[in-house]
Amino acid sequence: MTTLTDIKNLDDIKLLVDTFYSKVQKDEFIGPIFNEKIGNRWPEHLEKMYRFWQTILLDVHSYSGSPFPPHKQLPVEKEHFDRWMAIFSATTDELFLGPLAEEAKLRGRNMAEMFHYKIDYFRNAAKNN
């Protein structure tokens, strides 16, 4: 049995991101949404995710930009965010153990909640105009 260690470097970030999005692409519930939106740009998306998580978890400022706008028009509901979070947490737990792994799950959960809230807000604002 392999002893799990914490997220330590960019290689660990890449392992987490690649493993997670491999599962997302195959998921019957959220996979079609991701695959339709991203299309053949998966390598570009993964590179962006490496930089995003490296910035958040390792304090290496390699990501700049605003992560929300590309998600604003996605056809997603709370159930989609719940599935994203379940896959993300399970992937993190199967690969890593430690404070940064816990931080990744916390940040992922906070981001999912914020994105869901903002998407709902913009939808309701559009309905009321």
From TrEMBL:
Keywords of this entry: Heme, Iron, Metal-binding, Transport
Binding site for heme: 71
Family matches, as Pfam families: Bac_globin (PF01152)
Gene3D superfamilies, A to Z: Globins
Transmembrane segments: none
Highest rank taxon of the organism: Bacteria
The protein's name: Group III truncated hemoglobin
